[in-house]
Each structure stands twice: as structure tokens, then as C-alpha cells.
Amino acid sequence: MVISSVQLNNYNQPIYSTSSGNIMHNLYIPSVCVGHSEFNNTQCSKTEVFECANDMNNEVSKEKLINNQHSYQRRIYYSTINRDVEELMNENTPFSEKLKETVEIIDEAYERYGVFGFSFNGGKDCTVLLHLLTAGLYRYAVRHPEIISPNEDLPKIPTVYIMNSFPFPEIDDYIKEANDLYDLDIISISEPMKEALKIFLDKIPEMKAISVGVRSTDPYSEHLQPFTPTDKGWPDFMRVLPILNWDYNDIWTFLLRLNVPYCCLYEQGYTSLGGTNNTIKNPALKIETDTGEEKYEPAYKLKDGSLERMGRIRKPASPSPLR
Q1: Cα-Cα-Cα-Cα dihedral of 98, 102, 107, 113, to 10°?
Q2: Hey, which bits of the chain come out as E strands?
Q3: Which residues is 118 bridged to in the sheet?
Q4: Strands, DSSP E only, in 163-314?
Q5: Quick check: 228 and 239 in contact, CB under 8 A?
Q6: CB neighbours of 188 closer than 8 A, spacing ≥ 6?
Q7: Distance from CA of residue 264 to its chain's centroid?
Q8: Given this model, what pLDDT does residue 315 score?
Q9: Which of 57-66, 81-90, 237-246, 301-310 is least confident?
């Protein structure tokens, strides 16, 4: 099991875990229950589903309600994520204002492109973005029932995982578990980035945009805008970059406050993930022990976000269209 998450004091949202084989647990279809409205983000518990069924006179309707409890798992899970995002966004804090801006960018992207692509590498930034995109897809469906019917599940998010030439097994495992958790339409491609993007777009030729978890503090990213076309000579699409203005602490605030599952390598002292050939545990998180044993604090304990990339072995690099 490689998914990790941390409980904060006074924050008791349950951990979502793929180890149980059932990510929904006690969440059921809200739209089919009498007196409950999906559009108000209300959720029907298992007890309420059966209460609704018992109120029905039509035996066929009862059977349909009970037998199809898990028909719309993405719709239900994403609506729950959206509720949590909205609660965090409505707090009167500097971070909540930043989150509002990000949500507006995501909503605009859905209005422009409908369901668009997502580039996922298993890192913390992409994990934040994935969580936000699922909430955005739910809001888009609520705004446009003529496009995504309330009587069907939400579409899967088209996702590309461009595999590293020197992969961490933990990242590959996390990608698989996140795929199960969020129920993505994921394509894993073991090719250089330019070729991988071309393959991805060839499979979905109607796709005009791909969202990427890039921040302005990343290399070559300081001049990017939330909507930035790819560079000349690269596959042509719009890069949707909703978290450009987030910093390191913002990322961990979001992950911890919403108890979002993330790759276990961040628990081991890694703060920025690349390949096994260029990634080490961050020296700033090293703990001095009396026994001389090498130990590291988890990534969210890093106090100075400017030290985030101390765990990356620097090599000459050229800009990528996903930067």
C-alpha cells in the first residue's frame, strides 16, 4: 500500500483507501432518493437509501434503487470532493482566496473545452490538481445537465502518465492506486515527452487542452499564464495551469486539510520527485539521532519552501511544453 495521508488535529474526515476495494464506503446515489437533491450537494447514507426505497410503492423502483447504489461512483465521489473544496474555499484566509482563483480557472477551462486531458506524474502538485479537477468536473456536470445527464455517471478524465526512464516503484504503484481511487481513463506511455504527448493526442484527437500541475517556482515556469499554448515544434494543445501561483506550503495545506491521499515517498523525506537517477531525500529534513541512524521527517515538515528542490540532483535541462 503506497497511498499516504495524515490526520490533522480537529479534522476528522475519513481517509480514502484503495486497500478495501471500495472507495465509496457509505456514500450512495443522491439523485434517485425521494426528498434528496444532488444539486444541493446532499448525500444519502445507506440507511436513507433503504428508507427511500421503503417509501416507494412500486416494487420495480425499489429494486432499481437498491441494486444500483454504486452505479454513479464518480459522480458521488467527485461531489463529495467538491463539497470539501467549497468548504475550504469559503474560509476567510489568504489561501482560500488563492483557492478561489484556482477554482475559477478550472471552471473556465471546463467551459472552454468540456472534458479535457490531465498529465499525471504521481507528484504532490499533480495530486492536488487531480483532486481539484474532479471537483470541477462535478460542477461542470451540474451546470450543464444537457451535456452530462444527471441520470448517468460522470465521464472519466482522460489522463496520461508519461513514465520516467528511472522510475520509483512507489510512484508507479501510487499511480495505479490513484487510478483506482479516482476512476480515471489513464494511458501510461514509456516514451520521451514529445512522442508521448503525440501518442496521447492521437488517441483522443478531439482533445484541445491538457491540465498540468506546474507552479511558477518550477524551472522555466516563471512567465507562464493559466492558459498557455505549447511551444512551437511540440504537439499543439492548450496548457491549463490552475495552480501556477501556489507555493510549497499551499500544496501541503490543501493535501492535509482535505486529507488527500498522496505518494508514500513524501513520508520518507522526499520533497520533489523525479527519477531514481536524480532524486534524493531532502537534506533539510534529515534528523540527527543519538545512534547515528539516518532518519528524515516527512515532506510537509519542511519549513522553508525554497528548499523544496534540495532533493533533486541538478542536471542541465531544456524546457518542456508541460513546464
Answers
A1: 160
A2: 3-4, 117-119, 158-162, 185-189, 209-212, 227-229, 238-240, 262-263, 286-287, 295-296
A3: 159, 211
A4: 185-189, 209-212, 227-229, 238-240, 262-263, 286-287, 295-296
A5: yes
A6: 161, 163, 175
A7: 15
A8: 62
A9: 57-66
Provide the Cα torsion 177, 306, 163, 276; round to 10°.
-100
User: Judging by DSSP bridges, how do beta strands 286-287 and 295-296 pair with one another?
Assistant: antiparallel
Q: Which residue, among 297, 291, 243, has the nearest Cα to 269 in the 3D structure?
A: 297
DSSP string computed for 54-111? HT-S-HHHHHHHHHTTTTTHHHHHHHHHHHHHHHHHTSSSHHHHHHHHHHHHHHHHHH
Residue with cell 537534506: 283
Q: What is the rounded radius of gyration, in angstroms, for the C-alpha atoms of the chain?
A: 21
Report d(CA 156, CA 74) in Å as an integer.
Answer: 8
**Distance in angstroms (rounded) separating the CA atoms of residues 259 and 40:** 23
3-state secondary structure of 229: strand
- pTM equals 0.80
Its sign, for the CA torsion 140, 5, 193, 245, is positive
CA 256 to chain centroid: 13
- The span from the CA of 263 to the CA of 122, in Å, is 7
